[in-house]
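User: structure tokens for this one?
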Amino acid sequence: QVQLVESGGGLVQAGGSLTLSCAASGRTFRSYGMGWFRQVPGKEREFVAAIMWSSGVTRYADSVKGRFTISRENAKSTVYLQMNSLKPEDTAVYYCAADQYTPYTWSAWGQGTQVTVSS
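Assistant:
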């Protein structure tokens, strides 16, 4: 059974920074990579960033390019999302996900962590 646990959310002022972490565990855990998504009430969950475990190749949503950085620590099965220059519109619940069977097809999800950016 795979478990993804996010941490690091909180309240920050506009222009500030936060770093989210997602630790993956489970005896049979294996994935091509990990992704970050976010969701606000009444809207669909949207892609934020992704990284592949082996190559380190990254992808970003246009809305966060140049402000967010995704990274991974393979030995700890942990991925990070460094968020800089935060804006009120970045306020959301942030989820991490794993693509266990097909690259960029997300099959396992964490419980989410709230990020609130005040203006």
